[in-house]
Structure formats: C-alpha cells, structure tokens
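Issue: ligand-bound run for L-homoserine - logging full I/O for the record.

Environment: standard queue, default settings, no custom constraints.

Inputs:
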Amino acid sequence: MAKLAVLGHGVVGSGTVELFLKNKDKINKRAGIDLELGYVLDIRDFPGLPYSDKFTKDINDILNDDEVTVVAEVMGGVHPAFEFVLSCLNKGKSVCTSNKELVAKKGAELLKAAKEHNCNFMFEASTGGAIPIIRPIHRCLAANDITAYAGILNGTTNFILTKMITEKMSFEDALKMAQELGYAERNPAADVEGADACRKICILSSLIFGKHVYPDWVHCEGITKLTLEDVAYAKSWGGAVKLIGSVKRTEDGKILPMVAPRFVCGGCQLSNIDDVFNGIMVFGDGFDQVMFYGRGAGKLPTASAVLGDVIECAKHNITILSQMWEDSEDNSFISDYKEDVVSMYVRVNGVSKSEIAKLFGDCEYITREEQPESELAFITPALPEKDIDEKLSSFGDMVLGRIRLLEL
Ligand code: HSE
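Outputs:
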C-alpha cells in the first residue's frame, strides 16, 4: 500500500480529495496500484468531513512517513509551497502540482531535485486546467520539432470576456462570478493582468525549448485596458478579442513568448472558445497542427489533471526525463517583441482616412453600431511593431485603442 498526501485543502485540494475518494477503487484497479489517502495538510480545521482524521498541520508527518510516495501540492503561491515540495522531492517522494507560479518560477530547480532523487515533479494541472497538454507535448508529439503554439490559457479572463460580450455583464460582475465559481486566482489581478497566462506560457515554452523561461522575461498585457468598443469592432470584423498566450521560434533562432489580447479572426478555432474553456494550438513539423480544448479552471477539472499525474507517479516512480528542462543563465534567447512583424487593429478619434493612408497606405476599415462620426477603426498592414508604434506616435492621444491580430 502507498499513501497520497495532499498539500492544501482549498478549491483544487478539496476537489483532488473528493475525486480521488469517489473513484479510488476504479483508479487502483485500472492502474494496478494500491493507493490510499494518507494525509491532507492545511493550517485550517475542517471538522465533519468523512476524511477529517487525515488532516495534519505539520509537513513533517508527511516527510517522515515512508509510505507516502506521492504528494499533490495544490496550495498555490511560491512560499511555503517551494520549501515543502523541495523537501518532499529530497526524500524521494514524487510531487504533482497545479501551482503554475511555482513551476514558472522554480521549475528548473525542482526538476533537478526530482532527477537527483529519482522521483518526479509533475505539473499537468498547471496549464490548461483539465486539458492534457504537458504529457502530449513531451510524449505523443515527442518526434516533432515544435515551432509554435498559441492559446487561451486563462479561464477567468475568457469567462469575463464571454459574459461581457454575450450578456453585456459588467467587468466587475463577471469577475465576481468567476471568483464564486472557483476559477479566479486568490489575487484575481494575476488573471486580469495576464500574469497567470504568462506563467503558463513560461511552462510550455520551457518544456518545448528545453530552457527555463522566467515570467519577468515575457512581455505580458492583460485585459484591463480592453473596452467594449474594441470588443464591438472585433465582432463586426467577424472575429473576437481573446487573451492569447503564444510562443514561436523566430528567424534568428530565438523564441518569442508573449501574452496579450489579440483580434482573432472568425476562421480560427480559438475565436469560438468561450466561457471558462481554454484552447491551445500547437504547431510542429510532422503533425502540422493540433488543438487541445477543455475546461481551463475549476475544482474538479483541475483535480482531474492533478490525479492523472498522481496515478502516473504511483505506477512508475522513475524520473521521466522528457518532461525536464535546464535552468537558463540569461534571457539572450528571448526575442524582442517590438521587432516582431504584426498587423494591428487601431481605433482613433479625430484623425482622417487620408492621414491614416499617409502613414499606412490602404487599410481595411471596420465599422460598428453607434460609431461616433469622429471615430475610425482600421487594420494596419503587417509591419515590425516598433514601426507601427513610431507611426502611431504622431497621432498622440487620438489613438484610443490598439490590439495585435493573431496570425498563425
Ligand atoms: N485562475 C486560473 C484560470 C485557474 O482562470 O485559468 C486555472 O489555472
């Protein structure tokens, strides 16, 4: 018999215990293992639960129990999660986490510790909620050179955007609802300002390109500056505005990871992904492109991904080398996003079409209902972003909005 310890009894932690206990017999039978719930670590008390006797407030109970072979870290945040996870790995206990901040900031160090102690640090639940993405990338797609991916990686912001567009709900009400449904981060600024999607893009980038990509190195914009006018123009253009995390190889051999709202055309599957759902498109030389889709946040969807890793560890507690990456000394392999060639949606006030044509030549114009006479919205030709910025700077405050197009 082996024991599972769960660190944290919040939304994902309680979901992990609930799903494990519900399906334990089936899980053990199917996987040919004999796993029991050993401990739940939390500083709070949870009286009256059927597994109340499993709670502890002391990590040493877990560290000193040799029967604990697998630990699910679902407490979130870097401290004390990092110290707890490192201690578990140093004892040869595999750890499975949903904690994207921990993986994005400390992944290289924790993977190294796992390798040194011949166990695993697994993080399927850190990216895309229930969607299997980490394992498919390093296993099923392992024969390919992966060149790029782009996706909706944050359920909360996608939920907010959907509610604002389809139900005309206010940003504040939509965010409150996402919090009540257990989608948002403890500090929802991480969702709406893009940090959560940025952590996920760092994890995917590190996994694919083999070097740790730290969040500070990634250009990141959230959805807080989006306006209903921009959303209306996107709709009348035939697409949608989505918060997109992306990374691609650039011609100079570097990579360009980025998080920003994008105009996504109606023909792209990502434009139709709504609510809390995430979608990730991956591009590679052999398979061309694949798309992953599913619930990107929430108690049981995330628990499902955590437990997938737990079962994998309980079955094979040998370090899986294909899901590792090395630490990086500097960010010289990250390309400057200002050099990237993009087309941009631009909304201006008090500028004429001839002034726009002088800067950008012929542009596609978009209209919307209730468009003021003095307002114009257009799509620039594809140019390096720094050139677009320079041209637009001559319009000064007359530029009301600018959003990059997603071009795949
Ligand atoms: N707050 C995150 C989201 C949770 O909304 O996507 C899942 O990582």
